């Protein structure tokens, strides 16, 4: 079976009525993404985008004549008779989508001697530190800039004997990387039960089940008996700010705080919120920023 894909670019206020109209025309699926440069939004993170221009993609059975649909959209949703809504029409040939999806993931080196390897692939370097991972619903495959920066930082650390807190752990990729850098144990916390399950699966896949505890936030002690020399939070700036007290409460007085999921434009606000008692180093990849905070000496 083949499909026809219609791609429109519209103002955000037109997304809902246009989606309703396309569903009435028997669209099988409708997706949206940012069509402007005003804001980056990652769907794996919580929150609502505030896009101004939206790319709306509708999928139709190729037996449907889409010409009347395009004509209807232009008449009903264009700002004027002289201004047409940008539209692309593409034919998608049916194929084994699972196989295509699997083939898009290859082993990647994310840091010094640290690799992410999909479970169906042979490691490029069997003697390297390899994290075997299945991309899934939980966030964290090593390809996003925020995760990549954390992995690169962790790969260069010697965490011998340390207990690490990974808050917003997703697949558990950063917790596993910390263990491969010498940490003795990692507590991986995520608000999503699917992420907790994914972390457990990946811990088993990498042979570190006894070294990782996958937890929901309410399972983490609010006043811990022990604090962590390294606390990682790869979430979003607004969430990190909300979690400020929690993160600091679990950090040893001489510990290191690793913060990302932060746009470069938000870094100063996050640094100001965590205060002047710490020293800060920042790293940037694309529009994302990694903040490494350590106590002032």
UniProtKB/TrEMBL annotation:
Cited CDD domains: AdoMet_MTases (cd02440)
Gene Ontology biological process terms, A to Z: methylation
Family annotation (InterPro entries): Ribosomal_L11_MeTrfase_PrmA, Ribosomal_PrmA_MeTrfase, SAM-dependent_MTases_sf
Record key words, sorted: Cytoplasm, Methyltransferase, Ribonucleoprotein, Ribosomal protein, S-adenosyl-L-methionine, Transferase
Residues involved in S-adenosyl-L-methionine binding: 147, 168, 190, 234
Substrates-to-products reaction catalysed: L-lysyl-[protein] + 3 S-adenosyl-L-methionine = N(6),N(6),N(6)-trimethyl-L-lysyl-[protein] + 3 S-adenosyl-L-homocysteine + 3 H(+)
Superkingdom, natural source: Bacteria
GO MF assignments: protein-lysine N-methyltransferase activity
One Gene Ontology CC term in the entry: ribosome
EC number, UniProt record: 2.1.1.-
Gene3D superfamilies: Vaccinia Virus protein VP39
Chief location: cytoplasm
Record localization: Cytoplasm
Annotated signal sequence range: none
Alphabetical list of Pfam families matching this protein: PrmA (PF06325)
Job of this protein: Methylates ribosomal protein L11.
Protein family (similarity comment): Belongs to the methyltransferase superfamily. PrmA family.
NCBIfam families the UniProt entry points to: prmA
Record-given protein name: Ribosomal protein L11 methyltransferase
């Amino acid at each position: 079976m083949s499909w026809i894909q219609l791609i429109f670019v519209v103002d955000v206020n037109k997304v809902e009525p246009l989606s309703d109209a396309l569903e009435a025309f028997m669209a099988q699926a409708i997706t949206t993404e940012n069509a402007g440069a005003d804001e980056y939004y990652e769907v794996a993170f919580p929150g609502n985008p505030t896009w101004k221009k939206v790319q709306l993609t509708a999928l139709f059975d190729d037996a449907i004549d889409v010409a009347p649909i395009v004509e209807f959209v232009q008449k009903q949703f264009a700002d004027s008779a002289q201004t047409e809504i940008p539209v692309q029409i593409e034919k998608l040939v049916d194929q084994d989508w699972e196989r295509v999806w699997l083939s898009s993931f290859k082993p990647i080196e994310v840091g010094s001697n640290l690799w992410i390897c999909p479970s169906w692939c042979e490691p490029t370097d069997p003697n390297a530190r390899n994290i075997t991972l299945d991309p899934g619903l939980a966030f964290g495959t090593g390809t996003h800039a925020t995760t990549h920066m954390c992995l690169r930082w962790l790969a260069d650390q010697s965490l011998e004997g340390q207990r690490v807190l990974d808050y917003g752990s997703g697949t558990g990729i950063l917790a596993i990387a910390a263990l491969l850098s010498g940490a003795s144990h990692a507590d991986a916390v995520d608000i999503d039960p699917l992420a907790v399950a994914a972390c457990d699966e990946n811990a088993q896949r990498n042979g570190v089940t006894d070294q990782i505890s996958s937890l929901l936030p309410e399972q983490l002690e609010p006043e811990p008996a022990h604090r962590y020399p390294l606390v990682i939070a790869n979430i979003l700036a607004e969430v990190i700010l909300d979690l400020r007290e929690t993160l600091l409460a679990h950090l040893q007085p001489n510990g290191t705080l690793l913060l990302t999921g932060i746009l470069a434009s938000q870094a100063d606000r996050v640094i100001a919120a965590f205060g002047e008692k710490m020293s800060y180093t920042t790293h940037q990849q694309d529009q994302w920023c990694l903040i490494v905070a350590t106590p002032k000496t």
